[in-house]
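Run folding on both entries below.
>entry_1
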Amino acid sequence: MLSAVYISEVSEGLRASDIEQLVADSQRLNSARGISGFLVRAGPNFIQYLEGDRARVAALLRRMETDPRHRAMKILAIETIGVRRFDGWSMRYFYGEKDGSVRLESFLHHWSGDDAALINTVVRICSASQRHSHDEQPAIPIGSFSVLLKDC
């Protein structure tokens, strides 16, 4: 299995309802394809973690490169894994409040460690959101990063 983290710029004019539809579609399609992970809206960026069958994750990343809902997609880390970290998450969605978003973006853009360490850090932050989620919605779970990033 393969895991990957990328960052991209949210396309201008993309509304919250567009992101909600994106997440709903991703939950359905990822579930059918055996892909799990999460999407983060951090200020002007999307950050996404994906895991699953190597060929399926690679194919999804290639399709996403041309998705008009974002641009300047940059894969930050890729790692071979033996066990899923987010088996029950076909796609979770989190947003970052302004202060938390700036710190998350800066953290990712200035990362100097290896791929496995970056993935583990992103996973740790998003796993912690399970314990700190404030604004849960039945179809699209959402958690704020304002508290979580104080540990970084």
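>entry_2
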Amino acid sequence: MLQPKRYKYAKQFTKRPRGIDVKSTTVVFGDFGLKAMENGYITSNQIESVRMAISRFTKRKGRIWVRIFPDLAITAKPPSRMGGGKSPIDTWTAPVRKGRILFEIGGVDEKTTKGAFDLARHKLPIKVKFVEKV
């Protein structure tokens, strides 16, 4: 699972991803990419699940770039518990805004890439689309 090695504060405020992303909106490293079509959160488990699905489908050919990193700590508290303060960190998530490139792949043909990204699409909690390098 991905998570920061060190962080400055023990617990953070939860950022809400709003608006359209202005950076990381084009395919830079690979030939094809997976672009977010709505705002949301992607957990470290979901990122790892997508990465494994893509690498299995492509039979570990080509190269995969993960363009997001889960750096937002999410705390989880048991229900109906008044008081007690903020609970410990439960998961790490990546806030994703619309238009962001999430994953890139290079060195694999288009048909295989579309199949791999179709598998990945089902593992993500937000709508995504397949894009090519311009």
